[in-house]
Design goal:
CATH architecture of the largest domain: 7 Propeller
CATH topology of the largest domain: Methylamine Dehydrogenase, Chain H
Oligomer: single chain
Number of strands: 40
CATH superfamily of the largest domain: Integrin alpha, N-terminal
Helix content: under 10%
CATH class of the largest domain: Mainly Beta
Radius of gyration: 24 Å
């Protein structure tokens, strides 16, 4: 979610009074990836065509946020994997657990490998398969994890009418003995509709997409089915969702992407121009709130191929294809006046457009991450506001923990100036520290997050619980900053009986 989310009222008031800024494209990560999952400063991305110690089986990599930037935490591989397993086609992260789908394993019966974090790192602990699985099921094509509930899709994508099974989804629950399958979900008598192509889980609710394949099959049923866990532990179908747009009847693959969080559901319908629908749960069940494509000025091929939801913010991808080489991702946010388009993300013109950009999306520490998806080995990143938080701060006498942010989307050398803001802080006085190295050492009542060649910016008075300063980049000491540099910022302020500090902000400078 955006960096303003959860900040104090003082910080929000200062930042919202500043002019809106465009997106900020950050340096791409040189990592291969197709699928993404993020949680608590950890990112898991799957590369189903990659090789580790085993050739062509697929791999997954873990990245962790560190003071100096993102670093690799570990390489995950399926024990005894084989070429064509597509390990990492779908991934999920939970508390000290990582899951990787391998829909091509065992003659495309499919499997999901469970890894857990122990004292020696991430280790494989369990291999999940579907009860009664058959060749071609593709179990592990999609998956989602919510606490102790895991749902795994097995869509049987055959692009033909001859397959009578039409896909399934499997619900697992974790007990002291590991993960156990407790339900198999499906729609009998609907061949080749891709049931399970996308899945979503949240507490006692599971949603399964059934997008259909209008170009390859006469079975054009396309919807999303909602299941709920009953008091006795059984999972029951309670509602079928469809889209309201008039073009919906023309086989728009409704249900091809899903994400769900806190009573809100986003459903992608990524055929032709594409749609993305928001549903919210009310007293009468799930109700459609808006089709997000209606907020765009034009139509975009395959809009809705990927969706990501984080509180009041939704990402929707329109991936690059041969028909649509200019890929985009859109961020929508719900404000006082309802849902609106907030930001459009796209690759810079100086970089060749990668096929597949926009096929998967994730919100990571206030940033938008989008892997190239074409085997090119890049994960593109965009910041909605400049900088990444790191280090920690504790509550001060104002009642909250001070956080530091920048007002602009990009820390641009051409702009020549940055506005630094820290809040909540007591109405005393303070200043900002600028360093060329990160740190995390106890200092006063807080933690010192900057090191190296540290510059103390001028002392400022504090009012209304917020410390702010306009930094003129031309006034920095000899050498200053140039595009590509990374600097580290922190706020210092007086607080009885001594002083305290904010968290740290890592800022990468752009041209």
């Amino acid at each position: 979610m955006g960096l303003l989310r959860g900040s104090c009222a003082a910080l929000a008031a200062v930042l919202l009074s500043l002019p809106a800024s465009p997106q900020c494209e950050l340096p791409a990560l040189d990592q291969r990836g197709l699928s993404l999952a993020a949680r608590d400063g950890l990112v898991l991305f799957g590369d189903p065509d990659g090789s580790g110690t085993q050739t062509g089986t697929g791999v997954a990599r873990l990245l962790v946020s560190r003071p100096g930037g993102w670093g690799e935490e570990g390489l995950l591989e399926a024990p005894g994997g084989a070429s064509g397993d597509q390990f990492g086609h779908a991934v999920a992260l939970g508390h000290r657990v990582a899951l990787c789908g391998a829909p091509g394993a065992d003659g495309a019966r499919g499997a999901v490998q469970v890894f857990e974090l122990g004292s020696g790192g991430w280790v494989p602990t369990q291999r999940l398969v579907a009860a009664g699985g058959q060749p071609g099921d593709q179990f592990g094509y999609s998956l989602d994890l919510s606490g102790e509930v895991l749902v795994v899709g097995a869509p049987r994508i055959v692009f033909a009418d001859a397959d009578p099974d039409g896909g399934s989804a499997h619900v697992f629950e974790r007990s002291s003995g590991g993960w156990v399958e407790v339900a198999t979900l499906g729609v009998p008598g609907n061949p080749s509709n891709g049931f399970g192509l996308a899945v979503a889980a949240a507490a006692d609710t599971v949603v399964v997409g059934r997008p259909g394949f209008p170009l390859f099959s006469t079975s054009h049923d396309h919807d999303a089915r909602v299941y709920e866990r009953q008091a006795g532990g059984t999972w029951t179908h309670v509602q079928t969702l469809t889209g309201s747009d008039p073009i919906y009847q023309h086989d728009d693959e409704f249900g091809s992407a899903l994400d769900m969080y806190a009573g809100r559901l986003v459903v992608g319908a990524a055929q032709d121009s594409g749609f993305a629908y928001i549903f919210e749960r009310g007293d009468q069940g799930w109700e459609e709130v808006l089709e997000l494509g209606s907020l765009l000025s034009g139509s975009y091929f395959f809009l809705g191929r990927a969706v990501a939801l984080d509180g009041e913010r939704v990402l929707v991808g329109a991936p690059s294809t041969f028909q649509n080489p200019a890929a985009r991702a859109f961020a929508f946010e719900r404000g006082p006046g309802g849902w609106q388009l907030d930001t459009e993300f796209r690759r810079s013109a100086t970089d060749a457009e990668p096929l597949g950009f926009g096929h998967s999306l994730a919100i990571v520490a206030g940033q938008v991450w989008a892997p190239s998806g074409d085997g090119g080995g890049r994960i593109y990143r965009f910041a909605e506001r400049a900088g990444e938080s790191y280090c920690t701060s504790s509550p001060n006498s104002s009642g909250g923990a001070a956080r530091i942010e920048l007002s602009a989307a990009c820390a641009s050398i051409a702009a020549g100036q940055l506005t630094l803001v820290a809040a909540p802080v007591p109405d005393t006085s303070g200043l900002f520290l600028l360093g060329n190295q990160p740190s995390a050492l106890p200092f006063g009542a807080g933690v010192r997050c900057v090191a190296g060649s540290v510059v103390r910016l001028p002392l400022q008075g504090i009012s209304a619980g917020a410390l702010s300063f306009d930094l003129d980049l031309s006034t920095l000491p000899a050498g200053g900053v140039v595009a590509g540099d990374t600097r580290y910022f922190q706020a210092w302020f007086r607080d009885a009986p001594g002083f305290d500090l904010s968290d740290g902000l890592r800022v990468g400078f752009t041209p």
